[in-house]
TrEMBL record, chain A:
Matches recorded under InterPro entries: aa-tRNA-synth_II, aa-tRNA-synth_II/BPL/LPL, Phe-tRNA-synth_IIc_asu, Phe-tRNA_ligase_II_N, Phe_tRNA_ligase_alpha1_bac, Phenylalanyl-tRNA_Synthase, tRNA-bd_arm
Membrane-spanning residues: none
Domain Aminoacyl-transfer RNA synthetases class-II family profile positions: 106-374
Family to which the UniProt record says this protein belongs: Belongs to the class-II aminoacyl-tRNA synthetase family. Phe-tRNA synthetase alpha subunit type 1 subfamily.
Pfam families: Phe_tRNA-synt_N, tRNA-synt_2d
Organism this protein belongs to: Patulibacter medicamentivorans
EC number of the protein: 6.1.1.20
GO cellular component: cytoplasm
Catalysis: reaction(s): tRNA(Phe) + L-phenylalanine + ATP = L-phenylalanyl-tRNA(Phe) + AMP + diphosphate + H(+)
Source lineage: Bacteria, Bacillati, Actinomycetota, Thermoleophilia, Solirubrobacterales
The protein, known as: Phenylalanine--tRNA ligase alpha subunit
GO molecular function terms listed in the Swiss-Prot or TrEMBL record: ATP binding; magnesium ion binding; phenylalanine-tRNA ligase activity; tRNA binding
From TrEMBL, chain B:
Organism of origin: Patulibacter medicamentivorans
Compartments it resides in: Cytoplasm
Residue ranges constituting the TRNA-binding domain according to the UniProt record: 41-150
Protein name, as recorded: Phenylalanine--tRNA ligase beta subunit
PROSITE patterns found in the cross-reference section: B5, FDX_ACB, TRBD
Any single biological process term in GO: phenylalanyl-tRNA aminoacylation
Residue intervals of the FDX-ACB domain: 738-831
Gene this chain is encoded by: pheT
Record's keyword annotation contains Endoplasmic reticulum: no
Amino acid sequence: MIDRIAQLRAAGEADVAAATTTDELEELRVRLLGRKAELPNMLRGVSELPPEQRGPVGKAANQARQALQQTLEARIAELAAGELDARLVADRVDVTLPGRREPVGGLHLITRVRREIEDVFLGLGFDVLEGPETETVHYNFDALNHAPNHPARDRSDTFYLAPSANLPAVERAGDPRAEDGGSGRLLRTHTSPMQIRTMEREDPPIAVIVPGRVYRPDSDATHTPQFHQVEGLWVDVDITLADLKGVLLSFARSIFGDEREVRLRPHFFPFTEPSVEVDVSCFACKGTGIREDLAGHPRCGLCKGTGWIEILGSGLVDPNVLRSVGEARGDDAYSPEAVQGFAFGMGIERIAMLRYGVPDLRLLYENDVRVLEQWA
Amino acid sequence: MRVPLSWLGELVDVAGRDATEIAARLNVTGTELDRLLHHGILTPETVVVGRVLATEPHPDADRLKVCRVATGGDEPVQIVCGAPNVAAGQVVPVAQIGTVMPDGTKIKRAKLRGQVSEGMICSARELGIGDAHDGILALDEQLPGAREIPPGTPLSDVLPHADDVLELEITPNRPDCLGLYGIAREVSAATGAALRPAPWTRAGGLDEEAGDPDPAGDAIDGFSVEVRTPRCPRFTARLFDGVTVGPSPLWLQARLAAAGQRPINNVVDVTNYVMLVTGQPLHAFDADRIAGGLLVVREATDGEQLRTLDDQERTVQAGELVIADDEGITSLAAVMGGARSEVHEGTTRVLLEVANWDGPTIHRTAQRLGLFSEAASRNAKGLAPEQAAWAQALATRLIHEVTGGRKVGGTIDVGGWRERPAQQPIALREARVTRLLGTAVSRRRQAELLASLGFMVADTSPETAEGEGEQLVLVPSERRDDITREIDLIEEIARIGVVADLAPTLPVRRRLTAATLTPAQRARRRAEDVLVGRGLQEVAGWSFTDAGAAERLGLSADDPRAAAVRLDNPLSEDHAVLRPTILISLLDIARRNRARGVDDVRIFETGTVFRDAPDPRRPDMPFEHLAIAALVQDDLFAAKGLLESLLGALGIDGWSVEATDQVAFLHPGRAARVLVTPAGGARRNGDGPDGPLQVGLLGEVHPRVAERWDLPQVAVFMIDLDQLLPLVPADVDFRDVGQFPDARFDLAVIVDDEVTAASVVEAARGAGGPLLEQVGVFDAYRGTGIPEGQVSLALHVRLRAADRTLDDEEISGVRERIVAALAERVGGTLRG
Ligand SMILES: [Zn+2]
């Protein structure tokens, strides 16, 4: 009996050693150690042996079974490692094939630039507000100190809304005007009406920007009938023209680069006084007007050789605007002797064109996704 | 406004300054340069006076002549010329070899049909003077003393013909700069160049007869003027006899041409010349065509007619200003003269009108008629009444010099302007300037700067300490409408002397709270970012659409969404109304991209939509709100998945959808209203019930609508952000997700087709009790094994207790309660 056990063990170990695949070993496991195999059966039959043989036989059979088991596991591990290596070699793929495509979305360039501008002004301490796109003649022009014959009111410069049977008449001071189609309502031509709405609603001091869509009847490479502006307004007891320059210098450097300078040029806007246009030094030619970086040193096309690029209009809030706010509020909170401040308005598309080299504004509203995806 | 440099040089001493330098100074003091251009021949020094010695027919070309022309050299040159009027003996302008013509072509030695040609004899148009190009310019006929000019003399010496021209943008508050003298004053203030006396003053060279008031009195024999409207503050007239109408002298034509005006005849040219210098429009009547000798300035009544100078029959409207004589209206005042009284070839007597008008009235008329002539646009700005006298004075001299006409009688000068209160000086506080500009400007410097612009400044108390003074300022008449307040003076000081060198500062006072986006603004960004993260491209559609868009969407005329806000003056019919829904933009953009070969359109937009109904927030304005909408080329569940992501990211919990077949542009079986139940018992307007709010729509676009946009199956959602964003929770409180394992099981329940998944989930949720963490449908199956008209829904249920591991008994208890509730509430039976 003991001999038979030794025999089984030796034969089994020889078979295991001879096996070359894990599949063969799995078969051997069944044949040597499975339910119908001889060795386990001997173990199960130990109880039927004479008592004096039970001990030695059981011990020998058990040792043989454990030994076989270990040999088998060791051999399986040995072969499995080799087989995995072989499989990995066989599984090799061409990693230069394309990945499974996930659609990549993107913000429209206008949104992207609007957020950049918002973030810069948040950092400078301005809150962000939005306002309505349809407006009254009062908020868009009258309260902003536009003379009755100011050309911005012309039908060639402003979209007026047709009279509507569904809306009550707009109350307004003065003559009904030929240009407004009799409705007194229009599509805002700038975000500036929100200067008035904000001051009517909130006490000084205020520092806000107002991004939003505005409308003017123009259409060419640099004008679209709808576009976007960011209005700015800072009113307190001591805000000066020099502060305006400082704030806009910070803005210009954030958006166009740390080396930029700004220049104020006097201009005229009805609702600011003094009024200035703000130029930023050209980032293509570093303000020299000449492209030293290009062959032949041509004149800079971006700034037309002037070294400066106009980016926005601004000025100190006109006392008439503050007075008009005071009349609507019925208090002195915005008395021109008590508070002062600046306002500015810039075109988001213009900043986008400058920053991203968009050649034709109309491209931004064609919404060709192949164009838009460039900025995704 | 075009400013020829040589003309400017007569009014202000700009010697030694070139156009670029002047433009640069103007640019930083408030007068923007549109462009700097060169008028006429680019190399004026190469154009000389020549004399035609002889002409012979070209041997090989009928229309050409071979001319021998003396041009100051040792030998005459040979020039081949095609002009019919060239003849021996003429004095002519000769463009020599090397001349660069206005269009950039260079004159070279050439052979024309075998004959050498060494230069070009020029026409007036080739020189940039007027329109005449039917022949060469015979100087001997048009330039007095031309025969005495030695050949070879530079033409510029006897006839300035080429010039640098500043094209300036004049802001609407500066009508004084629509006259060259106004520009000259700006140039003087900006550069320090000496301003010359105004040419309408005696210091500027006029004699007394031309002055104001007229020493000859205020009457003209046979003519009178009545002003019957307050909108004409001043009307002046002078009569000139002995006028000979003809072409203007070349110098005058050359000047007008350089300033961008076409020469017409000497009388009209004088009125234009004077307008360009003074900024004040003038109008010349043929005095013998004024019926009855009486001009009445009045407001028109509706329907009156006249034929204007441009030969158009025009109907005027009540309130518009006209000038009438015995035969009716003879001039559309301040805008355009009438054809009936126009100066013509045979005119010998001219009545010259120079008047002052109410700007806004003229502006309105010009705008209605689309007639913004040089005169109308100046009158529409509102000029100073004093300017009328300046223009009369200068015109009187020029009419005499140029047409031979002599002033007869005095100057009619009517209108109420002299009754206006005298102008009061404006007080200017020294400290106020510093306080607003943020940099110190002494009052002596303030006075200097204002004086350079023609203001009269008086320091009323010179002993007052620096910084505490006050000065009194009188404004020149032509600036009176623009400068009425202290702040206007401060602007003048700023633009001439401060702005260019202002040092930037940052506000001293800063508030203590940092600026942040509002929760709604943050939520909007989050919503956009979620869609971008799911692979959608944001687009920016037009706010405009055409009036037929609602009909293409299938909306009936009485659908509220069909009530579009109409523009009164749209750019085109395609952009005649404001979009009532972003869907129109998305459909348009999807179609365009598909036409360009994009085969999987996934787009969204955030923008404003409009409706012709009162906005509850502003009852006299149309309703508008901010919306976000997405379109994908896929089915409803794709769009719903996006919406789930979006609402989930915003933390909107209590939302649901409800099927609807009532939205015309959506598939009637695949459309839903999107509802949100405000969290935390929030009430709208403080009094409404806590019912769910409809915040938008979800669905597949109706195939018939999609087809109109050439689209396949597309699904959309559109959400009213003005409603949704306020419902976004600002803060989300911490919730313990539990340390103990959950228990999960699935159920397949068969229900009738009419039973919605939402109601099955609702029934399960109601029965689940506090242990139920989540329940949802993960599959719907119809077909083999499921009775006709029924559907099998697979539910996934997850249970959890915060404080223990659930045992089998608890789990099966919940399961049984759910199964019972499904049977009872939705008629569900377990499958298999
Ligand atoms: Zn540049």
